[in-house]
Amino acid sequence: MKARVFVTLKPSVFDPQGRAIVEALHSLGYGQANDVRQGKYFVLDLNVASAAEAEKMAKEISDRVLANPVIESFTVEIDGAAK
Amino acid sequence: MKARVFVTLKPSVFDPQGRAIVEALHSLGYGQANDVRQGKYFVLDLNVASAAEAEKMAKEISDRVLANPVIESFTVEIDGAAK
Fold first, then answer.
1. CB A51 within 8 A of CB B64
2. B44 at interface of A, judged by CB pairs closer than 8 A
3. Measured between beta carbons, which residues in chain A are less than 8 angstroms from residue B37?
4. Alpha helix (H) ranges present in chain B?
């Protein structure tokens, strides 16, 4: 079962990488780029039987290992289906 | 218009970060984790009128700035709708 995890900085946290990308885009002529937020993306291949189990495990793993809950939030999707 | 961009290493490229995460998960008791691939995730806020235009621009930006086409591939989704 594949789980996709997206980890992003919380909206209130300043994202200097994203700002740098916006500035690079403006200097390349993409003036329409208002804002960019950078995050991390993980594809977990889990050996579990059900989507519910995969979701539970992916959320636990995200909370414990992949994200820093103080400044980051995460979203989990199982097998391409938005949860 | 929001575009979500996922950049991942091509399947043939070895992903040492992902391997390190798998080993960390195993040592934490998540033996069901077969494989992990780590990538980058970007949320672009583009000031364009149509979804088609947003998709075109996001793909161009991904190819030129966000991904290294030699070793990485990318996927673009507009406003939560898979393209």
1. no
2. yes
3. 42-43
4. 16-27, 51-61
Q: Phi-psi bin for A79: left (phi > 0), alpha (psi -120 to 50), beta?
A: left
Q: What is the residue-wise DSSP string for A63-79?
A: IIII--TTTEEEEEEET
Size of interface A-B (CB pairs under 8 A): 90
Q: What is the ipTM of this complex?
A: 0.84
Q: Is the pLDDT of residue A80 over 70?
A: no
Using a CB–CB cutoff of 8 Å, tell me whether A33 touches chain B. Answer: yes
Q: Tell me: the pLDDT tens digits for B35-50?
A: 999 999 999 999 998 9
CA B77 to chain centre: 10
> Which domains does chain B possess?
2-78 (3.30.1280.10)
